[in-house]
């Protein structure tokens, strides 16, 4: 593809000699007879197994981060598509009347589908790098590395099964860990304060990405404490969204009003991860800067996996028409459909933009996930198999499956829950089960996303918090948290309602 393709400085509107930077499916490792695709693997298992595929992945991710920031397929520019610096990528300019912000649609029916070509762009670059690097190995191991490169895909972090930061990689060759942070290529000693990053936002104080920083350094202990405290919410909410929500619009984004009656959307636990990892002042807590942290892509690959799992379980539900009151850098506020162009991503050299329909099936992009094996099956067979796989992975004791398939407001049952029992427990207390029915308590909420001049978090406690606000995300009495993340622009709408549920 265009590994040597260069563009203008990111602070300017880019111009191209050729037509576009196409994002194409990975065909390596695809079985042309059965249709089988290689898996995107869970990062913890991938790292612990090691071997040629892991070697290639770490080296290529590191190489990508070292590419000059002025190159269109550098880490800097790929990460900058999501939010800052609010500049054209691949010559896709700001739309007239559009709000200040990045290309990514939030609280929008396009939220799941837009990220598919975005992740594919990164995976495409890692895969291409691996093909070249594998051929450079000594003859004694070269064929092994070439074979691993062909099926290499970008991994995911399953924060549902294990709400803790992935372990750092180790190996015989010492390299800067490309999963730990991204270092900005800036001569400034105080961070990337360039025209791409105006103002005095917290992330500008750092030369590299940070997570829940303390004294200017990432504090992973604080991050893991927040993840652990939110683990029950993340697990229960995600499982119930996957299995109990049967409407794509309700599942896909927190801007759809139907979620007030259900378990919320996949965008809600997604936001909890952003906030828990970024903490106070970390890059992941800011929509404008989150894409620069390498964990962003591990996180969003898992979100894509959960979307693919939901699709397999509910194959007949898809993108509906929904009005977006905010818009993006390239899409003004208005009606969005399955034909809305997923700017700035094109699928060919002619500049044909992707739509949601183009990325409905992950197989069209050349990958799948371990729970989804659709080849040789009907849609119903695949749905049954995926549902069984998810229950085995996330609800092996069949506790969450007891909950009725009705909306929260209609869920019945007798009995009560002792306030001392842990909310979100996989084993409901005996008092909660009467005549075989389980009574579940949920918090349904509606909030103005732009109520404050910055992003904020709603925290829910069983009783008063036992700590100060700085430690609320890991407070012993925390039930769950609900982040309201917003861009940093000044020309934002006064009111944007979002919805969610905290079990």
UniProtKB/TrEMBL annotation:
Its EC number is 1.14.18.1. Residues 106-123, 293-304 form the Tyrosinase copper-binding domain. Keywords: Copper, Melanin biosynthesis, Metal-binding, Monooxygenase, Oxidoreductase, Signal. It comes from the Eukaryota. It catalyses: 2 L-dopa + O2 = 2 L-dopaquinone + 2 H2O; L-tyrosine + O2 = L-dopaquinone + H2O. The keyword Zinc does not apply. Coiled coil: none annotated. Residues 1-19 form the signal peptide. Residues 403-428 are annotated as: Disordered. It holds the Pfam family Tyrosinase_C. InterPro entries: Di-copper_centre_dom_sf, Tyrosinase/Hemocyanin, Tyrosinase_C, Tyrosinase_Cu-bd. It is an enzyme of class 1 (oxidoreductase). Its cofactor is Cu(2+). Belongs to the tyrosinase family. This is tyrosinase. It comes from Apiospora rasikravindrae.
């Amino acid at each position: 593809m265009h590994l040597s393709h260069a563009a203008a400085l990111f602070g300017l509107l880019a111009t191209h000699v050729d037509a576009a930077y196409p994002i194409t499916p990975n065909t390596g490792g695809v079985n042309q007879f059965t249709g089988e695709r290689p898996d995107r693997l869970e990062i913890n298992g991938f790292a612990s197994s090691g071997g040629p595929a892991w070697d290639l992945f770490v080296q290529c991710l590191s190489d990508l981060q070292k590419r000059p920031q002025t190159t269109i397929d550098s880490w800097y520019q790929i990460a900058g598509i999501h939010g800052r610096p609010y500049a054209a990528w691949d010559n896709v300019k700001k739309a007239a009347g559009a709000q200040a912000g990045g290309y990514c649609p939030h609280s929008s029916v396009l939220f799941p589908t837009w990220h598919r070509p975005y992740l594919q762009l990164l995976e495409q670059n890692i895969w291409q790098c691996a093909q070249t690097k594998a051929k450079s190995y000594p003859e004694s191991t070269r064929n092994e590395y070439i074979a691993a490169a062909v099926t290499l895909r970008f991994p995911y972090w399953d924060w549902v099964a294990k709400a803790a930061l992935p372990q750092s990689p180790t190996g015989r060759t010492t390299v800067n860990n490309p999963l730990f942070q991204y270092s900005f290529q800036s001569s400034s000693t105080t961070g990337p304060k360039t025209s791409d990053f105006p103002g005095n936002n917290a992330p500008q104080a750092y030369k590299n990405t940070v997570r829940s920083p303390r004294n200017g350094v990432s504090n992973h202990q604080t991050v893991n404490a927040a993840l652990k405290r939110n683990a029950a919410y993340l697990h229960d909410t995600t499982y119930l969204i996957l299995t109990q929500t049967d409407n794509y619009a309700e599942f896909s984004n927190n801007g759809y009003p139907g979620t007030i009656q259900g378990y919320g959307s996949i965008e809600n636990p997604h936001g909890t991860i952003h906030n828990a990892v970024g903490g106070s002042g970390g890059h992941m807590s800011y929509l404008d800067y989150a894409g620069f942290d390498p964990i962003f892509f591990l996180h969003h690959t898992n979100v894509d996996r959960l979307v693919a799992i939901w699709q397999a379980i509910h194959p007949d539900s898809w993108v509906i028409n929904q009005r977006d009151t905010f818009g993006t850098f390239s899409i003004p506020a208005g009606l969005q459909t399955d034909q809305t162009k997923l700017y700035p991503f094109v699928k060919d050299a002619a500049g044909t933009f992707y739509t949601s329909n183009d990325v409905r099936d992950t197989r069209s992009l050349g990958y799948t996930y371990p729970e989804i094996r659709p080849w040789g099956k009907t849609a119903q067979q695949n749905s049954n198999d995926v549902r069984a796989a998810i229950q085995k992975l996330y609800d092996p004791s069949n506790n969450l499956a007891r909950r009725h398939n009705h909306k929260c407001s209609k869920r019945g049952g007798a009995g009560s829950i002792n306030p001392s029992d842990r909310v979100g427990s996989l084993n409901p207390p005996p008092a909660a089960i009467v005549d075989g029915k389980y009574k579940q308590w949920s918090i349904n909420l509606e909030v103005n996303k732009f109520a404050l001049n910055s992003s904020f978090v709603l925290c829910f406690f069983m009783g008063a918090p036992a700590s100060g606000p700085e430690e609320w995300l890991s407070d012993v009495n925390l039930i769950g948290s609900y982040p309201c993340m917003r861009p940093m622009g000044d020309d934002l709408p006064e009111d944007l309602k979002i919805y969610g549920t905290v079990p």
